Amino acid sequence: MNRSGKILMFFLALAAQQTHASGDGCDLWCGEYPNAYFITPANDSRGNLGLVLEDQGIVHYAPKAVPFHYDEFAGAPGAGEPATQNPNDFASLAAGLGVAANSVQEAGARLAGEHFGRCLTDNAQAVDSLLKSLQSSNLPIQDKTLLAGERLRFAGLCEKSLEVYKPLQVSDAAKPYARYLEAAAAFYAGQYDRAAALFQSLSADAKPGWVQETSLYMLGRVALNHAQVRYDGWSELNAETIDRTALGKAASAFNAYLKAFPQGRYADSAKGLFRKIHWLSADGAALTADYQAWATKIRPGVAGQALLDFINETESKSNPVNAPVDALWSAPLLAMQHITASWRPGDDGALQQKTLVGVDAVNAHRSQFADAGLEALWSYLALAHRYWVAGDYDGVIQQTAADAATGKLSNIAYSRRTLRGLALTALQRWPEAEAHWQSLLKTVEHPGQKIQTQWLLALTWSQQGRLDDIYARDSTAGNSDIRDYFIHAGKPELLESLLKREDLPSHSRSLAYFTLMNQFVRHRDFKAASAILSAHPASGYALARDMLAPLAWAGQKGEYACPSFSELLAAIQQTPAAAQRLNCMGDFSRTQNWDYSLDVIADENVSDEPRHRWHDLADYGLPFKNKPVDAFGDKSGRKIYSSLDYYMDVINQSGKVASEDMAYALHRAMSCFASSGNNHCGDQNIPKEQRGAWFKRLKSEFKDSRWAKEQKYYW
């Protein structure tokens, strides 16, 4: 195995160790940047790491869309799903030891709940370990039953582990187990002094075996958790938040355990927890040395969860956004994560000069990358600095002119080719950019690279107003997801043509249909909407989440009667200024949530959309702003209408309006601002004085109407 492979495999072997106490319980909810399929500062650091690991054959991605999620590699568990042992694994053990079935079921349910900190380690694996020890012991069965039942009693209770604790009445031979359970319950309850005293006694007095070894190991765990009692997970790591004395005790305890049990059942975990000790000590050099020290203990074959744990740990512990890079150069992969993160623009769009890693620093550490077999990565980082930081697009083009685009491309090589195309795009050298993407599409084999290139080609066409090229029958960017995305920007003529395309998926035609109807109605082009509805009945189309349900609106009866949607469309064309019909169109927009733009770009569960949000050109560091597209208004000059616009049209009519219709329009217009004072019927900014005038008018001119009687405020 070459050196680069060894270093990568060392990282994976490192992650495979048991590090239950070192996890921070933080995944997607902490925030994640969407990942393009090339190495870029705009990616999540874990995504960039995954791309490099794929070049080394460690992971394999097969994304169906970009951005991709860094944990979607073959063999990986679902995102955010911890690798927990099935409670059924210990259920049979507990039953064999005589524990009541309801106790086992309740314990399993608690362990399956959400836990953090030390409570993460009160899991099925921990319970299973004790039960197996009891099963293999020579203790009387009644002792085994009591001890197993006590462990399941506080399983998953954490802080409440000692609330109903009672000393167990067991034989002398079983008392070490009983004392261990008291110590474990004290640990999970956060009573560290009590736990430490009990574990210390057991490690010294118990006979050699499971209790003694586990107690010696737990001394380190107790001290490590004690060191963090003032740390909330977000504050700085300093003397005010971390007890350095307790950290020292943890290190001493783990060293003592490893000396006594160098090949013990917790040896890997104890070694791994030194990483957390060094992290809590804010000792970046020692933490990096920990990673390097494991290079001599490389093992092939790493489970997906172990690899995912490693990828997540590099993000949470090496802190690529804020940690100083000086301590990371000896670990090039960690340095790469930090370097690219330092080139990520801040919220104001500007580079953060204070943390930015300059090209001189990158060049000065070429040897570390070369020694790790990652000189190609170093070369790419130097090129990426020219693109992302210096904005030297001509230089990027010149530097990549000799790059070969033949044969299978690694992710690093593909990233270089991508920067070349983006540099051409930045300079608006459109024919060359298009030719570059077309040529690259003939070369790339990896599905992620192919989709990324198709997307960049589609963006190039879109920037030139050439959406027709995306939907051409022989389009090289004809990926169905890409086509679905650009439907929201399509002009009416294009979308109408898509309705007749039998070669397109029914979902794509339904998206085009929805966009046509939604935009025609919102632009008040009722004639065009009626024509579409007549030529293409809504029953022939379907989208998830009932997105087409508004087209079957049955109207409303009772308080304020309105006809069905199709009847309303026909009627309002005959008398566009009729107050009742304007009010009804306002009610349609309001009740069907058509007051705001609905960017329906994918027929999928809404919770999945952020994970696969397509990038726009501005996300690739290009000097183009993502301008809102109004393909319908651009042609007709019509503005977009919301329900408040319809109500205000009635209010502002100078002709005679039925009192019932005027009172309803005033009531609805004011209700748009309930109860916060913010408009939730559009984006109009109506001064409070104007709303007050509406209120006064309703209460005076139409005081006998039900709407005046119901209206108490104008917010």
From TrEMBL:
Q: Which residues form the signal peptide?
A: 1-21
For the keyword Signal, the answer is: yes
Q: Which InterPro entries match?
A: TPR-like_helical_dom_sf
**The entry's keywords:** Signal
Name under which the protein is recorded: Tetratricopeptide repeat protein
| Species of provenance | Candidatus Methylospira mobilis
Highest classification ranks of the organism = Bacteria, Pseudomonadati, Pseudomonadota, Gammaproteobacteria, Methylococcales
